[in-house]
Amino acid sequence: MQVLVVDDEPLARDRLIRFLQDLDQVTGTAVAHNGFDALQKLQAQTFDVVLLDMRMPGQSGLEVAEQLKILPEPPAIIFCTAYDDYALAAFQVKAQAYLLKPIQRQMLVDALDDCRQLNRAHLLALTDQEQVPSIAVQTGREMERLPLTEVYYFRAEQKYVSLFSRRGERIVDESLNSLEQRFPDQLIRVHRNTLVYRPRVVKLTRDIKGGFWLTVESVCDPLRVSRRHAMVLRRLLEGHSRVAPDK
C-alpha cells in the first residue's frame, strides 16, 4: 500500500510517517506540504491512500479531495484533522475515514485496513462520475478535468508536456510514453515529441524535400511527422483515403 501524507505541520507529518513505517501493509510513503504539492505528487505517482489534513494554506483538504475525482485511479481518502466540524463535508466527498488529531496508532491501522478492503473498482465508483477518458491538466494553481475528446494533440518540449485543445494550451504532468500507454486506441505518435488524438487526423502530405506533414482538425498549422511514424500513419489512413499525393 502506497500512502501520501498531506499536512502543512511538520510534527503532524512526522508522527504519521513514523506510524506508517512500522506497518507491514505499507510499502511506501511520501509527504506533501500543502494541497498543491499533493496534487502534483498524485499526478506523478499512483497512491492507494491519502492522509489529508483539513486546514492548510492555499487549498483546503476538502478542495483537494474534490480534485482527486479527476484522477484515473483516485486514492482512498482519510482525513486527519484537529477539527470535528467538517466530518459531514468530508464524507460528502467520499472520504473513507475522518480521524481527529492527535492521531492514535490503532485508529490509523483500522482506517487503513478498511481501505485495503476497497478494491480499485469500488474507489472509482465512489467518485460518482461517469468514467470517460479524460486528462488532468494544470491551469495556474488549479487543476481541471479535460475530456480526451477535446484534445487536438500533445507535444513534449524540454521538461514539460503541453496539451492543445479548443481551450488553449495546458501543462500535463505526464510523459508522452505514459499517455500513449494509457490511451493506445485514442492517441497515435507522429513524432518523438508529438501525440495526436486519432479522430482529429485529417490527412498526411509530403513536401518537395521529402518531409511529412499531418493536417489535424481545428489546428491551423500542420504538424511535422517523422519518417518512421509516417509509415505507420500511411497504413492507418490508406483505408480512409486521407493520404495526399506528394507535392
TrEMBL record:
InterPro entries, alphabetized: CheY-like_superfamily (IPR011006), LytTR_DNA-bd_dom (IPR007492), Sig_transdc_resp-reg_receiver (IPR001789), WalR-like (IPR039420)
Residue span(s) of domain Response regulatory: 2-116
Gene3D superfamilies on file: 3.40.50.2300, LytTr DNA-binding domain
Residues that bear 4-aspartylphosphate: D53
Keywords: DNA-binding, Phosphoprotein, Two-component regulatory system
SMART domains linked: LytTR, REC
GO biological process: regulation of DNA-templated transcription
HTH LytTR-type domain ranges (all copies): 135-239
Single GO cellular component term: cytosol
One GO MF term: phosphorelay response regulator activity
A Pfam family it matches: LytTR
Name this polypeptide is given: Alginate biosynthesis regulatory protein AlgR-like protein
